[in-house]
Amino acid sequence: MRRGRRRRVVIGGLVLLVVLVVGLFALDRVLFGGPSGPPGATVVVKIPEGASVEHIGDILDSAGVVGNGRRWALDVRLHGDGDDLRAGTYTLRQNERYGIILSTLRAGPAVLPTVRLTIPEGHAVRDIARDDAPRAGISPAAYRRAARRAHPPPGYRATGKERLTIEGFLFPATYTLTKPVSATRLVQQQLTAFQHAEAKVDFRPAAKKNLTRYDVLIIASMIEREAAFPADRAKIAAVIYNRLHAGMPLGIDATIQYRVGSWRVLNARDLRVTGSYNTRTHRGLPPTPICNPGLASLQAAANPAKVPYLYYVAIPGDPKRRHHFSRTFADFQHFQQTHPA
Q1: Structure confidence by residue, pLDDT tens digits, 308-329
Q2: What is the value of pTM for the model shown?
Q3: How many structural domains is the chain composed of?
Q4: Alpha-carbon distance 6 to 162, whole Å?
């Protein structure tokens, strides 16, 4: 064979090979809704529960995982490959191969490590940052930054000179957090949980007393810090309502503790602190919540007991940590004299 002819045969063979590769690639795209190019960047796709093969194809198409979602779904149907595709969140590549997509969706989403974090009722933002967030791997500074950047839910407004803060809206509950844990995601989960909780509260009785939702939240925060025995919550709410109606200072030491930055027992110097958080000397509600209350305190704050009490005091030595309630100051004093701490 002459050298020129041999060269032409080799070149013709290479051309035929290229044509075959291009043809197979085109056939894959037509028959399988397959890739329109080499695998590309990674993308995250979410397959919802109960999604049909056609719906999955549309999701993959929108993310660029397949070139034609309808053709992909048709091929899955024709080959009987759609019975064990699982819902979840997946990381795939754009222009991914048919077989890899199927094996990934059949295997199910990767199980991400999680941590459970319980935030107790009655913790202020500073307490969550210092005591709770670190148990989930969040630094106090990161949690405080996330809390400062967050916005309270709509429908709340400050009634005094103080601006509306995030205090009170960071709902206490047990959260399952995906690692690595994000302070911002935790704060958002708390805000979402608060909105779910407030939907269970009937604010109408409070509105009849000209109290706003924010007023109720402030009252709930005081109840959370004051009440240890569940049945006392609605009674403490009644004392607050009755004192507000009578124009009396609330006299709740927890508001002073919030102001001085510690829940410790107050000393004489603490009691002389000035400002509207000193409810021994200042009439009316403190300007903001003093902690983040749970659902039971929110419900009590919105629906106080129908009782005439104006005073309460912890019963010394009571294992249930109940309070004694009084209508008059004389009864209040008598109880303290006969039940010394």
Answers
A1: 999 999 999 999 999 999 999 9
A2: 0.74
A3: 2
A4: 91
